[in-house]
Fold this sequence. Notes:
alpha+beta, single chain, two-stranded antiparallel sheet, 4 helices
Amino acid sequence: MVETTEKQLTLQDFLNLPEGDENLELIHGVAVPKMAPKYFHISIQRVLERLLEAWGGKQGRAEREWAVLLRRKDQDWVPLPDVVFISFERLPAEWMENDACPAVPELVVEVISPGQLFGALTARAADYLSAGVMRVWIVDPQARSLTIFYPDRAPVTLTGDQALADALLPGLVFTPAQLFQRARLPGA
């Protein structure tokens, strides 16, 4: 287990921390532990990763819990999104390092965990968009919804059989109902 302190870490200090039992994010110069996901959460992550891989495996990478090097409010920020998709245009297929994602992904997905608030993730979505991410999805397992955040327009929330279709991800089409059914959530 890695201890976190209030000592301000540089990006390099953070990246040099030893791997431990906890997943950490760099927020305002502090290594902050990320909550360990529960079963419904990881089921949704797995389904989204598989959907993105099936759709875009020849176009980019879809990964779960991959740290991303970003900037937020003029500070280094290393969030650990639940799922990311990054095209080979932004990060070439030949790149093969055991490092944090060094380029800004097109898509970041956050799944709401028990105890998390939609409003807090909305603020985080705005930070992702400010850092150059083109789409942010917030998946709410309780409400059975998927909210899409755009850099240039208001968010859109999809539920039930409303299809997700986006010019940024041409050909990727699914509904929240399909997502939650594939994740085998009770009542889906």
